TrEMBL record:
Keywords: Disulfide bond, Signal. It comes from Helianthus annuus. Disulfide bonds join C35-C247, C83-C93, C98-C105, C154-C237, C159-C220, C167-C183, C187-C196, C197-C207. Residues 1-25 form the signal peptide. Coiled coil: none annotated. This is Putative pathogenesis-related thaumatin superfamily protein. GO terms for biological process: defense response. The keyword Disulfide bond applies. The keyword Transport does not apply. InterPro entries: Osmotin/thaumatin-like_sf, Thaumatin, Thaumatin_CS.
Amino acid sequence: MAKLFLSISLLILAISQSLFQGVKSSASFTFINKCDQTIWPGILSNAGIAALQPTGFALQKGETKVLHAPSSWGGRFWGRTHCAEDSDGKFTCATGDCGSGTMECSGAGASPPATLAEFTLDGDGGMDFFDVSLVDGYNLPMLVAPTGGSGHNCTYTGCMVDLNGACPSALKVMNADGEGVACKSACEAFGDQEYCCSGSYGTPDTCKPSSYSQLFKTACPRAYSYAYDDKTSTFTCTGADYQVTFCPPSTTSKKSTEEQATPATPQLNTGMVYEGADQMENHAAPWYTHIQGVIMAVVMVVALL
Ligand SMILES: *[C@@H]1O[C@H](CO)[C@@H](O)[C@H](O)[C@H]1NC(C)=O
């Protein structure tokens, strides 16, 4: 009799496991524009997987847009700035342009410099891997914040400070008015293998942070500042949804010129940095993960009878 109970219970456990895993097979992304200007997010899905649509759209100041990713989706997001259509209807942007000539990027990536948010959903161990990268330079402050997920480093990442004003002149990209609109990586600006982690510098042991990458790292400690910056820049979550915020509130407030000149001291008062900060600190496991534990306990008890 106990054997019958045990096998029935195991069956129930197996069914519940597949059911509850099915609850969260993919993630939603909420794009929020807190910039003073319209942003045109671009999306590039990794090769060989179902693409996230649309591949580009306009996000007005203050606007929010939700997209649902296919399961096991991977790819990158970035923000394009100062976009316009010319008289021939060709769409181009001053930063982050993908060269498609249209609002949608249709499989084309950002031309650097651009701040990138990179995701691999449902990767190793069922975890989502994500990061914000300045390896291809910087054009906008971005915050990636998981909601509702679990994991030991399931927390926010990003580059919350305005690096355009503070960018060293050798790396600075300016618009026609002489205003800084982006900041190149040292690799892009100088092309040295040492900065690009290529050639004889193509391994984690040989490619070290440079004074330029350290400038990015000091300003944005959670973001990738050079190719092998993995340890401090890759975050993981299980069962999370994500908010991708352009110009999170700490950066839109007026800064003194002194602060702008010193990127080394980002002003991040923890807890007041952005709306919903308390939500980001919530590492609690989603409710359905507990159900399995309860069922497991019931199985144990029944098996012991
Ligand atoms: C987060 O966890 C992953 C997987 O354990 C690890 O590789 C990564 O270095 C961690 N990231 C941080 C910022 O601690």
